[in-house]
Design a protein that fits this description.
Radius of gyration: 19 Å
Strand content: 25-35%
Strand order of the largest sheet: 3-2-1-5-4
Distance between the termini: 29 Å
Order of helices and strands: EEHHEEE
């Protein structure tokens, strides 16, 4: 198995109120990370090939994409975990909290779409 999805317990804090929930986190193996990085390289090369058809601008866009490809590939390869789902509510209003961030870097700060208050999400003790 190259990608494993695990559930992590989190607490959502807004002021004095705290609620608990879970996050679904995908953990990537080296093979899965290499596959994702290769896919990223392919996308960058395809963008560079499409840029060849743009008269004049291809003199800047193609070398730019070629130079940026290693940056995107290395950045993609270094991502070992990613948030794929959440089952939690806003600590302020109790509405469903939608996570817009996929990077697992605690504490997370997510704004509730219902009440527009910011919630701090951290791993439960």
């Amino acid at each position: 198995m190259t990608t494993q999805v695990v559930s992590k317990s989190v607490k959502v804090v807004n002021g004095e109120r705290t609620v608990h929930g879970t996050l679904e986190v995908a953990c990537f193996s080296k093979e899965a990370r290499a596959k994702r990085a290769t896919k990223t390289a392919g996308i960058c090369i395809c963008i560079a090939l499409v840029c060849l058809t743009i008269p004049g601008a291809h003199f800047i866009l193609v070398p730019l994409m070629v130079l940026l490809t290693p940056f995107f590939v290395i950045r993609t390869y270094r991502i070992t975990t990613s948030i794929v789902g959440a089952s939690t509510v806003c600590a302020a209003c109790g509405g469903k909290l939608t996570l817009l961030s996929s990077k697992e870097d605690y504490p997370l700060y997510e704004r509730c779409l219902s009440c527009q208050r910011e919630n701090r999400i951290s791993l439960a003790d």
